[in-house]
Each structure stands twice: as C-alpha cells, then as structure tokens.
Amino acid sequence: MDVAELESHALRRALVERVRVVRLAGGHRYLARSRTVEPGAYFELHVSPWGHVLCSCPAYTYRGVCKHVMALRLRLAKERQNDEAV
Predict the structure, then answer these.
(1) Does residue 10 contact residue 71 with C-beta atoms inside 8 Å?
(2) Which helix (H) or strand (E) holds 42?
(3) Rounded Cα gap, residues 74 and 69, in angstroms
(4) Which of 17, 27, 57, 66 lies 20 to 30 Å from 37, alpha-carbon distance?
(5) At what angle do helices 3-16 and 67-85 cross, to 10 degrees?
(6) pLDDT: is 34 or 30 the higher one?
(7) What phi, psi does 51 have (nearest 5°)?
(8) What pTM, to 2 d.p., does this model score?
C-alpha cells in the first residue's frame, strides 16, 4: 500500500471505531485510548510547530500513519474551519 491508501484506511478505521482524542493542558499534546493493543491504555500524540502529527502507538511506529493520527488531523481541520467561520 502507498501512503495515500494507508491514510485512507486509517481514516476509515478512525471514523468507524469513533476514535476520540483528548487535548492535554499546555498545548500540542493529546491522548487517544487504545482499543486493540492494550485495552485501557493510552497513546500520546504530539503536533509539531509545523503541523506534523506523531503518535506513540505501534501502528504509527510501523507504518508512519495510524487511526489516532487521522482522527486528530480531522479534529484539527474542523477546528481550523470553525475558527475561519467566526
């Protein structure tokens, strides 16, 4: 699979599984709960100053993309859209 296919697959999983991402106090850090690797555990996500999203889950480590990253990208895009509408 190429990167676009991996991202598309990860986005579908994020939507179907309703991945929730929670912002931590202090800025660019977020948490997403694990449902498959270690149920009840959390993965940390970080947004770089350039907008690149990183995740601590095994899928991201292996593929460079995961459902948590895609869920956060979607959330950030919606927040930007809402900010522009105001």
Answers:
(1) no
(2) strand 42-47
(3) 9
(4) 27
(5) 80
(6) 30
(7) 90, 5
(8) 0.87
User: Do strands 42-47 and 29-33 pair parallel, antiparallel, or not at all (unpaired)?
Assistant: antiparallel
Residue 79 — very low, low, confident or very high, per pLDDT cuts 50/70/90?
A: confident
Say which residue the tokens 């990860």 belong to: 10
Could you please report the per-residue DSSP string of 54-73? EE-SHHHHHHS--HHHHHHH
Angle, vertex CA 73, rays to CA 82 and CA 76, nearest 5:
25
Distance CA(38)–CA(65), nearest Å, equals: 18
Domain locations along the chain: 3-79
Distance CA 24, CA 39 (A): 20
* Residue 86: per-residue pLDDT: 64
- The residue that leads in pLDDT, 37 or 71, is 71
